[in-house]
């Protein structure tokens, strides 16, 4: 497994590298101090996951994430940033980040983020989840006031195998969580893009949601992890954190 760390602060990269190594001793770590260098390495070396700082010498804010995802749409990206504003977190989720970790977080939080993301889940800090839920509730209230009917409310199938999804829907969800756009998911699954878009619509309806961002927040809030390709298997001697759809306690 290859993990790319993109940050212009060498000390922070070294600390993050130690946390990744603690989980996966045999991981191959790649380093970049600029966006250009990160994009080049991501394109040539094909890392399995990228940890990305937003404030780089040649990349400012969410533009850094956008440029990386343009170069490598399929690569899972976790943002690690000093910017803790809720609007920045939302924008990164819209740009298909797989997680968001404030640099003010404790080492335990970074450890939790690495474990969640490499297990096929999404990591967001508790404060961001609370703020995002307030935003979602406010959006839904405005939609109702404007006459837009809300999604049909029913109990979410958290305790059923694969959440009550078909195998294709569940596979779509697993790739969606990893930050893949519909075209990349279609290529992975050998389907037409329009078919994957239909699956995504079915997923949102299934979970009573309106947008992909709401789906990501929901998964992060409930600590759900999903199956990932074998490249994400833990190092020998470590118990796999994944045994089907899970809720973190």
UniProtKB/TrEMBL annotation:
<feature type="region of interest" description="Disordered">
    <location>
        <begin position="140"/>
        <end position="161"/>
    </location>
</feature>
<keyword id="KW-0597">Phosphoprotein</keyword>
<feature type="domain" description="Response regulatory">
    <location>
        <begin position="2"/>
        <end position="118"/>
    </location>
</feature>
<feature type="domain" description="HTH luxR-type">
    <location>
        <begin position="158"/>
        <end position="223"/>
    </location>
</feature>
<dbReference type="GO" id="GO:0003677">
    <property type="term" value="F:DNA binding"/>
</dbReference>
<dbReference type="Pfam" id="PF00196">
    <property type="entry name" value="GerE"/>
</dbReference>
<dbReference type="GO" id="GO:0000160">
    <property type="term" value="P:phosphorelay signal transduction system"/>
</dbReference>
<dbReference type="Pfam" id="PF00072">
    <property type="entry name" value="Response_reg"/>
</dbReference>
<dbReference type="InterPro" id="IPR011006">
    <property type="entry name" value="CheY-like_superfamily"/>
</dbReference>
<dbReference type="InterPro" id="IPR000792">
    <property type="entry name" value="Tscrpt_reg_LuxR_C"/>
</dbReference>
<dbReference type="InterPro" id="IPR001789">
    <property type="entry name" value="Sig_transdc_resp-reg_receiver"/>
</dbReference>
<dbReference type="InterPro" id="IPR051015">
    <property type="entry name" value="EvgA-like"/>
</dbReference>
<feature type="modified residue" description="4-aspartylphosphate">
    <location>
        <position position="53"/>
    </location>
</feature>
<dbReference type="InterPro" id="IPR058245">
    <property type="entry name" value="NreC/VraR/RcsB-like_REC"/>
</dbReference>
<keyword id="KW-0238">DNA-binding</keyword>
<dbReference type="GO" id="GO:0006355">
    <property type="term" value="P:regulation of DNA-templated transcription"/>
</dbReference>
<dbReference type="InterPro" id="IPR016032">
    <property type="entry name" value="Sig_transdc_resp-reg_C-effctor"/>
</dbReference>
<feature type="region of interest" description="Disordered">
    <location>
        <begin position="230"/>
        <end position="249"/>
    </location>
</feature>
<protein>
    <submittedName>
        <fullName>Response regulator</fullName>
    </submittedName>
</protein>
């Amino acid at each position: 497994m290859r993990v790319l760390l993109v940050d212009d602060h060498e000390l922070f990269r070294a600390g993050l590298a130690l946390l990744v190594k603690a989980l996966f001793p045999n991981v191959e770590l790649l380093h970049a101090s600029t966006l250009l260098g990160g994009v080049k390495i991501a394109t040539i070396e094909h890392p399995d996951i990228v940890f990305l700082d937003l404030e780089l010498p040649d990349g400012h804010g969410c533009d850094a994430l956008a440029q990386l995802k343009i170069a490598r749409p399929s690569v899972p990206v976790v943002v690690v940033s000093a910017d803790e504003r809720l609007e920045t977190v939302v924008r990164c989720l819209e740009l298909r980040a797989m997680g968001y970790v404030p640099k003010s977080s404790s080492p335990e939080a970074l450890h939790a983020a690495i474990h969640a993301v490499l297990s096929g889940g999404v990591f967001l800090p508790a404060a961001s989840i609370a703020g995002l839920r307030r935003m979602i509730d406010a959006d839904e209230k405005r939609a109702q006031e404007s006459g837009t009917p809300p999604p049909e409310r029913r109990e979410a199938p958290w305790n059923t195998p694969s959440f009550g999804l078909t195998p294709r829907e569940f596979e779509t969800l697993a790739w969606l969580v990893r930050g893949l756009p519909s075209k990349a998911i279609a290529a992975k699954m050998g389907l037409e893009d329009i078919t994957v878009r239909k699956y995504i619509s079915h997923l949102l309806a299934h979970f009573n949601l309106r947008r992909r961002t709401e789906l990501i927040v929901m998964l992060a809030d409930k600590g759900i992890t999903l199956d990932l390709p074998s490249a994400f298997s833990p190092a020998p001697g470590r118990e796999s954190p994944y045994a089907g759809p899970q809720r973190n306690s």
